[in-house]
Amino acid sequence: MQAPTTLAGRTAIVLTVSDRCSAGTQVDLSGPALARLLTEAGAQLLDTVIVPDEPALLISALHAAATHAALILTTGGTGLAPRDITPEATLSVCDRLVPGLAELIRQDGARRTPYAALGRGICGVAGGIPGATGGALILNLPGNPRGAESSLRAVLPLLSHALDLLAGNTEHSGPDVPQSAQTVE
Fold first, then answer.
1. Whole-prediction pTM
2. Among candidates 88, 86, 84, which has minimal Cα distance to 74?
3. Has residue 4 got a pLDDT over 70?
4. Residue 70 domain-assigned (yes or no)
5. 170 found inside a domain
6. What phi and psi, each to the nearest 5 degrees, are found at residue 3?
7. CA pair distance 58, 38, nearest whole angstrom
8. Pairing state of beta strands 94-97 and 136-141?
9. Per-residue pLDDT tens for 74-91?
10. Using an 8 Å Cβ cutoff, are 145 and 73 in contact?
11. Can you give the residue range of the structural domain that contains 75?
């Protein structure tokens, strides 16, 4: 099943967080799977980057990505292993959290494996100034290729609206929005 085309014109970057992939001892399967889904959804994929599980390197990569892309997906480094530092690095660059997206990702994973409850991934906004428009939406996704792809599919229908809100477009209208919540012109 192809992802819905909801991200037309949106910029995105995928960061794979993995010591082994960074060292070239393992092939990155999650990053390319996410890149494919983003492209199918109409996003303009600016880059795919592999970084090791090193806090300073990941924080630097997240900061750099937030200056170029509206959407940043990380894959890997969200578990309980000592070197799984993606959530902590993401927290250090986010100004605001979006816990509902992280909850939805874990709910989706729990339908496939009980281990999804051990995922510590977060979602948040980096580079935005509260009260102003802007910022990049960062989603921490699992490192398992199937888990990463399923997680993105679970939240994909929400991303266009989330990115609209970050860009300052706060009108709420459409068939799924109650009439009382729609903006009157």
1. 0.89
2. 86
3. no
4. yes
5. yes
6. -65, 145
7. 21
8. unpaired
9. 999 999 999 999 999 999
10. no
11. 11-181
- Alpha-carbon gap, residue 97 to 46, rounded angstroms: 24
Instruction: State which amino acid sits at residue 64.
Output: A
Give the whole-angstrom CA distance, residue 105 versus residue 150.
8
Q: Is residue 2 part of a domain?
A: no
Strand ranges, E, within 58-169: 71-75, 94-97, 123-126, 136-141
Residue 168, amino acid: G
Q: How far is CA 170 from CA 55, 162, 179, in A?
A: 34, 10, 15
Does residue 48 come out as left (phi exceeding 0), alpha (psi in the -120 to 50 range) or beta?
A: beta
CATH number of the domain within which 32 lies: 3.40.980.10
Report the distance separating Cα 115 and Cα 119, nearest Å. Answer: 7
| Domains in the chain, number | 1
- Domain contains 62: yes
Q: How far apart are CA 107 and CA 84, in angstroms?
A: 20
